[in-house]
Amino acid sequence: MSVRAAVAAFFLVSGAMVCGAQAQITASEWSDYSNRFVSDEGRVIDDGNGGISHSEGQGYGLLLAFLASNKPDFARIWSFTQRELMIRDDHLAAWKWDPNGTPKITDVNNASDGDILIAYALALAGKDWDEPRFTQSARSIADALGTSALFSHKGETLLLPGVHGFGADDQPDWPVVNPSYWIFEAVPVLAGLAPDNQWTRLSESGTALISKAAFGKNHLPADWVSVAGTTPRPAEGFPVEFGYNSVRIPLYLMRSMDSDMNLLRRLRDGMTGPQGAVTLIDLTTDQVTAELEDPGYRIISALATCVLDGTRIPQDLRVFVPTLYYPATLQLLALAHIRKDRPECL
């Protein structure tokens, strides 16, 4: 399905992208997740990163609460996000909130993936729950991102990771982008909210970028990529690695239901280690720097194997037992996608 067709489907077909959303995450799974990672005030806690909160986590929390059809928890997470992170004057969220910081916001710059997740979850909730206030907030964020974070470069529409820090005044090899910030399923929704911006072209550019960003013997993207030259290359001043950011790229591609099978196979083969663990790789030396065995990581490779080869998801990956915030989030997103769109994988 093209991006334009997806936009039309979302806004013209009643319930189109959210039909059946109540069943995607069980009440028990959401309870286990929220009890572990969501504070009483609605702060999503990244316990693998010093207990901070960030716009990405708030966005994930909103999306998962929506997929669990838990309106009170959605409202609680959004209330914290509005009060504590939406302090900029451009409708974008400050990305980092530190409980030990004074003030709590220790970096006021935005993170575009966090803004996309927040806007996407608000748009879904606004439509499915008939809450115009959520829709309006989503539209404001989409407009702001379209104005300040989307940009044209060599005929492609690309996404700045943040409004500041990645342009000509900040990076010697600008523009610098992060391929994992392309949340493909959200793009048609935000395109419908902000049709005057360049959202409709963003998915195609993201797929092209990931296809070309094939570094090292495993042909994997780096977390941070310069698109200054004729071909992408790892960005200067950042670790040259397939790292924690990039492990979610195949999941985003699969959740969009519009993934290139050859690209997905390349990513799956390059990132998967022994017993299905996801490997982090130094793309300069081709050395494995970590093997991630948490179910939340392994389910990404397993889901790719199902999509590519028809192999069902192992039983142990179907059971949600929260460990750390990030892999727990990825596992719930994978399980929700399987239940809604790929039941043959169970």
From TrEMBL:
Pfam families (alphabetical): Glyco_hydro_8
Endoplasmic reticulum listed as a keyword: no
Family (UniProt): Belongs to the glycosyl hydrolase 8 (cellulase D) family.
Entry-linked InterPro entries: 6-hairpin_glycosidase_sf, 6hp_glycosidase-like_sf, Glyco_hydro_8
Signal peptide: 1-23
Catalytic reactions on record: Endohydrolysis of (1->4)-beta-D-glucosidic linkages in cellulose, lichenin and cereal beta-D-glucans
Enzyme class: hydrolase
Protein name as catalogued: cellulase
GO molecular function: cellulase activity
Keyword Signal belongs to the record: yes
